[in-house]
């Protein structure tokens, strides 16, 4: 799976499967983007931004990858982690569906990188994971993320009240889905 997933995007940024060795760079990326991500993330404990915590988080995500429950990805420029795309909650059987989440370094926003990454992940989800559907949720006011999803063929399917606890409070989300097979 790791060879199939690797993709070059643009601006020297690539997309690949998360590796245990990424934990220190991931911690640095979270620390560098702490203020940028705060309005869109759950409240993070100070330890979240440390390499030791990210070592444990990455280990758990790689366990989920091996179990077929998730596809944790990183956006990298050289060895620097500059973002994440995660396919989580993979459900098989009649559903063949998963959730999509993502973020990008503040200094790289507006260049089409996340749109390219999400488009690539949709192909991977369809062709390599054999999923039928991806779902994503955005805060109601996150127009940039909604533009990414719409550009990648996602359609809004409704509003989920008090869907996730983000920035310290339960917030409504606009839900999107993309059907990957005709």
How would you summarize what this structure contains?
It is built from 6 helices and 8 strands, in the order H-E-E-H-H-H-E-E-E-H-E-H-E-E. The chain is α+β, with helices and mostly antiparallel strands and 182 residues long. InterPro entries: Acyl_CoA_acyltransferase (IPR016181), GNAT_dom (IPR000182), N-acetyltransferase (IPR051531).
Q: How would the blueprint of this fold be written?
A:
Layout: H1 2-5, E1 7-8, E2 13-17, H2 23-32, H3 34-37, H4 51-66, E3 71-77, E4 80-91, E5 97-104, H5 113-127, E6 133-139, H6 143-151, E7 155-166, E8 169-179
Parallel strand pairs: 5-6
Antiparallel strand pairs: 1-2, 2-3, 3-4, 4-5, 6-8, 7-8
Radius of gyration: 16 Å
Ends distance? 24 Å
Number of H/I helices: 6
Strand content: 35-45%
Give the overall silhouette: globular
Strand order, biggest sheet?
A: 1-2-3-4-5-6-8-7
Largest sheet: 8 strands, mixed
CATH topological fold name: Aminopeptidase
Which structural class do you get from the secondary structure elements? alpha+beta
Mean pLDDT level: 95
According to CATH, the homologous superfamily is Gcn5-related N-acetyltransferase (GNAT)
Low-confidence stretches: none
Total separate domains: 1
Pfam families: Acetyltransf_3
Protein name: [SSU ribosomal protein S5P]-alanine acetyltransferase
GO molecular function, one term: protein-N-terminal-alanine acetyltransferase activity
Family: Belongs to the acetyltransferase family. RimJ subfamily.
């Amino acid at each position: 799976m790791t060879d199939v997933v690797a993709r070059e995007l643009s601006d020297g940024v690539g997309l690949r499967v998360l590796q245990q060795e990424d934990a220190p760079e991931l911690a640095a990326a979270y620390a560098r983007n702490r203020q940028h991500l705060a309005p869109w993330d759950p409240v993070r404990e100070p330890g979240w931004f440390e390499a030791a915590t990210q070592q444990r988080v990455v280990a758990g995500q790689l366990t989920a990858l091996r179990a077929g429950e998730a596809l944790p990805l990183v956006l990298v420029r050289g060895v620097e982690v500059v973002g994440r795309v995660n396919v989580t909650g993979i459900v098989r059987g009649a559903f063949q569906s998963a959730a999509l989440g993502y973020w990008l370094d503040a200094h790289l926003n507006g260049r089409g990188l996340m749109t390219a990454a999400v488009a690539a992940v949709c192909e991977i989800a369809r062709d390599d994971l054999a999923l039928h559907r991806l779902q994503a949720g955005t805060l109601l006011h996150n127009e940039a993320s909604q533009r990414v999803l719409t550009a990648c063929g996602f359609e809004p399917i409704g509003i989920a009240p008090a869907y996730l606890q983000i920035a310290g409070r339960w917030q409504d989300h606009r839900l999107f889905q993309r059907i990957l097979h005709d």
